[in-house]
Backbone:
């Protein structure tokens, strides 16, 4: 599955579409040539709103997975979001409604309901109820019919719509039809609504979401677009000459035009993002407001003659103003979110620049053509998994490794592109998810390979060879079994790998063992290749393999701990020279400072007693956040105001106590550093780990989910 992040061209075209809508409502060329303006705003620009519909159908139905309860919840959430936005937009325009006399004599409950359900309380707001109605119809049909049937039904609805819109002239030839349409127009002002207009585009979007397009069809899409676009122009000109239209929103060739355009843009690679998507929404919502504002400005400054009377300048002014206001709104909405309650209790600061630096350093140690697979398991070693992978993905890392299925799905859902390898075991029950999310599964044994194959679905895998780690993988000397693993019909082998157990050790015997493991691996691969089998990309070294330069042959290396600028142990020495910079620092706050009499017990278990009258501060971090409980017994300390302060008493679940008697001025709210630098003092993650008799990996991956991750350049 491709995720939202890939749809840059869709996102960008939506901005263009929003500007086309502004054109429809301002008529940029009317000052110069009415007919040209008609061609542009009455025909060309009409692809804008259907484009919004098809994109909505696409994005929504990507999330529909065929699990009834979950899908219903997805649809409900979507509709709730659109309804909220609609409600907000209605409120925003209320003052303008009042000013424009909306609530005058012909206002009734009936007109209000009709407007809210179909026409919108402002001329552009019909889009929101149309989207909601369209989504309801689409999901109703989706549960019952195949796509061809859905398209036929939506096509018929569209035809009814056409006859109330650009082809209305045909209706007037029949008294009966004319009477029917007159009745219909009592319910809504136009047929370009959620009933007749939106469904076909939403369904086409859903269809594209369910039947992914491939790269080869780009030319076809471009050609299809060009052809239908020209036909739509001709159609628009002809119905106009025939004086058929009652309104000019719906054309027959608008459907293929939008379908091909959307498909074409979908096949382009580009980066969009939430900002640009929100911007579009707000340009759409706010542009009539910008029109009112520009008129007001024109009047107030006496520049109406240019600003309003010249249609093109008017259009440009409205567009610029709408973009500016929308930008401010989006910034305001997003800023409020990030400002709320950050760095309150316990947080890890993640230095993105250091991550990028470490990546470059590690790549420098690899052969030029070799790939680096970023190991992002265990919440990216505690650094925050989707975020770290996103940053790396954006700067070109195309291979990721995770421990388990859920971690892989989380990355895909956040739009991570490229290969995601699951290093661990995945239950056979979840094979369909492996496929759906395009995850690569490690084949951990011959038996597992056979079971995977029996699922009968094409699956990407890497074969794992156990060369002496004694964990996952088929034993290197079971060559018959290994060959069988490669020969399964449904398993598409894209890589082969093994894992080293002592590549961090400078001990001679260990170095020999690592060499032996590597030899065993390449031996297996040679035999695989002799059988005419392609083993795919090879990888055996992880961080310490790279740092000690143990293998030169493999096309890829898996880096975990080193990527985060850390060594597993404080006093490790490695062969290659490299400048690694720690990415993470860990902080909390002083929440209370109190004077405690000599001889008082601190914390659970009364393990610690004050030897003199002391200033004791409580700190807002505990073992549930990853601080080992016995750290005080091991002589653990923290940094506050650039000085060391010992941890006193057992670490609690959410808090710990420190002695700050020797540090003047410590007060509530002070930042406490558990890993990182404060003034001239530093505590490294390696130091903390060795104090607790463990390795750095355990400390950082144990940083709890409550700890906020704050990303800074
Ligand atoms: C965790 C893991 C890695 C990453 O190891 P680092 O020493 O952190 O670089 C690589 N390969 C496998 C199979 C792993 O489980």
Residues:
């Amino acid at each position: 599955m491709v995720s939202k992040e890939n749809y840059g061209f869709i996102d960008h075209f939506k901005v263009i579409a929003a500007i086309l809508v502004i054109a429809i409502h301002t008529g940029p060329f009317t000052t110069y040539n009415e007919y040209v303006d008609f061609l542009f705003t009455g025909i060309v620009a009409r692809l804008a709103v259907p484009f919004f519909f098809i994109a909505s159908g696409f994005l929504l139905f990507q999330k529909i997975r065929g699990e009834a309860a979950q899908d219903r919840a997805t649809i409900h959430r979507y509709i709730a979001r659109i309804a909220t936005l609609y409600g907000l937009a209605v409120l925003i325009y209320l003052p303008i409604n009042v000013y424009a006399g909306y609530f005058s004599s012909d206002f009734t409950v009936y007109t209000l309901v009709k407007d809210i359900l179909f026409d919108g309380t402002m001329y552009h707001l019909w889009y929101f109820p149309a989207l909601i109605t369209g989504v309801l119809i689409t999901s109703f049909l989706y549960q019952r019919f195949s796509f061809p049937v859905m398209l036929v039904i939506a096509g018929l609805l569209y035809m009814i719509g056409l006859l109330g819109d650009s082809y209305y002239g045909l209706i007037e030839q029949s008294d009966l039809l004319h009477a029917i349409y007159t009745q219909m127009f009592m319910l809504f002002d136009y047929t370009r609504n959620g009933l007749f207009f939106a469904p076909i585009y939403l369904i086409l979007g859903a269809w594209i979401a369910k039947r992914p397009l491939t790269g080869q069809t780009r030319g076809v899409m471009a050609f299809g677009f060009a052809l239908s676009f020209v036909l739509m122009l001709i159609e628009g000109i002809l119905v106009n000459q025939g004086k058929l239209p009652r309104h000019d929103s719906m054309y027959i060739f608008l459907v293929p035009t939008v379908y091909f355009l959307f498909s074409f843009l979908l096949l382009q690679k580009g980066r969009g993002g939430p900002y640009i998507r929100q911007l579009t929404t707000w340009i759409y919502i706010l542009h009539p407001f910008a029109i009112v504002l520009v008129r007001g400005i024109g009047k107030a400054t006496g520049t109406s003659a240019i600003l309003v009377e010249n249609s093109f300048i008017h259009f440009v002014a409205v567009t610029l103003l709408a973009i500016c206001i929308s930008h401010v709104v989006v910034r305001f909405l997003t800023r409020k979110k990030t400002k709320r309650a950050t760095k309150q209790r316990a947080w890890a600061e993640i230095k993105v620049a250091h991550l990028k630096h470490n990546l470059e350093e590690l790549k420098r140690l690899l052969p030029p053509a070799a790939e680096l697979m970023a190991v992002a398991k265990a919440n990216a070693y505690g650094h925050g998994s989707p975020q770290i992978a996103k940053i790396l993905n954006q700067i070109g890392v195309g291979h990721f490794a995770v421990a388990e299925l859920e971690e892989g799905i989380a990355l895909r859902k956040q739009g991570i592109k490229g290969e995601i390898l699951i290093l661990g075991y995945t239950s056979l029950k979840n094979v369909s998810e492996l496929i759906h999310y395009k995850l690569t599964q490690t084949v951990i044994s011959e038996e597992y390979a056979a079971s995977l194959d029996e699922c009968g679905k094409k699956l990407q895998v890497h074969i794992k060879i156990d060369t002496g780690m004694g964990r996952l993988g088929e034993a290197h000397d079971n060559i018959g079994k290994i060959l069988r693993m490669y020969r399964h019909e449904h398993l598409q082998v894209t890589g082969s790998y093994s894992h080293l157990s002592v590549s961090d050790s400078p001990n001679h015997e260990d170095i020999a063992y690592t060499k032996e493991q590597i030899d065993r691996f390449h031996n297996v691969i040679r035999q695989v290749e002799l059988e005419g089998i392609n083993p795919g990309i090879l990888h055996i070294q992880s961080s310490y393999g790279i740092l000690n330069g143990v293998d030169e042959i493999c096309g890829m290396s898996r880096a975990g701990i080193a990527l985060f600028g850390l060594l597993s142990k404080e006093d490790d020495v490695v062969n290659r020279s490299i400048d690694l910079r720690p990415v993470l620092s860990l902080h909390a706050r002083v929440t209370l400072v109190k004077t405690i009499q000599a001889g008082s017990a601190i914390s659970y278990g009364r393990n610690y007693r004050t030897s003199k009258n002391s200033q004791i501060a409580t700190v807002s971090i505990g073992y549930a956040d990853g601080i080992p409980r016995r750290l005080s017994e091991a002589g653990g300390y923290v940094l506050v105001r650039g000085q060391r302060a010992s941890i006193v008493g057992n670490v609690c679940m959410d808090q710990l106590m420190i002695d700050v008697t020797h540090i003047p001025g410590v007060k509530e709210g002070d930042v406490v550093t558990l890993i990182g630098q404060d003034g001239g003092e530093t505590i490294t993650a390696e130091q903390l780990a060795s104090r607790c008799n463990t390795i750095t990996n355990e400390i950082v991956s144990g940083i709890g989910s409550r700890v906020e991750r704050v990303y800074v350049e």
Notes: Residues 375, 377, 423, 499, 542-544, 558-562 surround pyridoxal-5'-phosphate (CB under 6 Å). Residues 1-5 have pLDDT under 50 and may be disordered. The radius of gyration is 32 Å.
